[in-house]
Amino acid sequence: MKLGSLSGGLPCRLAICLLSGLTLVPGQSLSEFEKTVTEFTLPNGLHFIIIERHQAPVVSFNTYVNAGSVDDPRGKTGIAHMMEHMAFKGTETIGSKNWPLEKKALAQIEAAYDKLSAEQKKGSAADKKKLEALEAGLTQAIDKAETYVEPNEYDKVVEQNGGVGLNAGTSEDSTNYYYSFPANRAELWFLLESERFLQPVFRQFYKERDVVREERRMRVESSSQGLLVEKMLMTTFDQHPYGIGPGGLAEDIENFRMPEAFAFFRKYYVPQNITVGIAGDVDPKECRRLAEKYFGRLPGRPAPPAVSVVEPPQKSERRVSIAHKDQPILVIAYRRPSQSDPDDLALDVASEILAGGRTSLMYRELVRDQKVALAAGAQSSFPGDKYPNLFLLFVVPNMGRTVEESEKASLALVERIKTEIDKGALERVKTKLRAGLIRRLDSNNGLAGDLTAYHAAFGTWKRMFTDIQEMQKITSEDVMRVARKYLVAENRTVAWTYQPKEGK
Length: 504
Prior knowledge:
Structural class: alpha+beta
CATH architecture of the largest domain: 2-Layer Sandwich
Helix content: 40-55%
Radius of gyration: 24 Å
Number of strands: 11
Number of helices: 18
Order of helices and strands: HEEEHHHHEEHHHHHEHEEHHEEHHHHHE
Shape: globular
CATH topology of the largest domain: Cytochrome Bc1 Complex, Chain A, domain 1
CATH class of the largest domain: Alpha Beta
């Protein structure tokens, strides 16, 4: 189980810091920790996980929606990401100066857009003057709706009541909404968060669509890293939506509409697809009362289907390169199974042995000793882990050294771990992961997020602890076996950037 996401650049996902260690925090046993956890499911299907921590009068809230960019409709990529941008735009009562008039103004935007789209679909037969007039009419409708908006009112309500860390994030597999409140403002969170799901208003939609488009320019189109990762994914995945990153494709972002985004919300933002984590100075009984009072209002609807597309097997190595003026980058990706596969944990350990910090093989060999690379790393599961995905290596060649040298040296290390694993290195990896676990569990926000992610992925947050035990059982032979099974040429995609020669 790997937590985190990619946002257009090289992998930055946390390694499996949740998957080892027998002591959770100093002085607290596993059984004692479990006693602090209460969970319940409302009749509409929404699941709550409550973690009592009374050290300070603060509470962290994390709403985990089991839908991400992998669920984007075909031709509408980027819509899951738009949910993040719409998250805190408010409701009928928060964010509007006059909701009845704003509602009419929002409808007028869509009517104006419908007329413009109808003329645009005529292609070369479209009347240019009419198009100009319709575009002006759409702009006027958007400007009129803006006059009814109370900017950032949702954010202000949170901040004025002591809320901190208000944010959201979209990954391939999920979307998270989170912030913290003083303990005496917990009920306000229940009200605000439930209202967002009960009566959301997608105000300023097209303004935010432009922001999403600009984010793509910055993170992908203007970044050699982003461009390379996008090209690598498209080369590796022929059918599965993992072939498209969470930011979406430019042409899709520029053309999807608010009604389509709202349809996505109605389909995926249903109680059965949402898990809420609450960690801090709370009373579980009071949390349940508030959950029933506020979230119980949400109508129960069927859970959305999982992605049914199955990527065909890869039968030979694939290679792709792009020209870019920046420092060259190399990415080597191997096809691997999902997080539910029994080999998942051993692949995680293989990743750490190859590139888990300064004691790893890639750092010692490529960066420190051979000086082939300026930086090297690995990610055991990319771009998501809910479905079959990729085991990723990435290298930034040193000045004066070539991509070819970096690839040769990296592949040599991959071959080495198929026949040789240093037992000391294996133990160092486990020790490192234990320390990471302690750090994560020391954070209310980390707890609220991690336990909801485990529940959504495996049906129970307790899987986190069974994985802890399984991690301790992994041997050198296990790591060598999965390396021989998955890190093979026919599973491999190699992607790199190169600097074009002057004048070309």
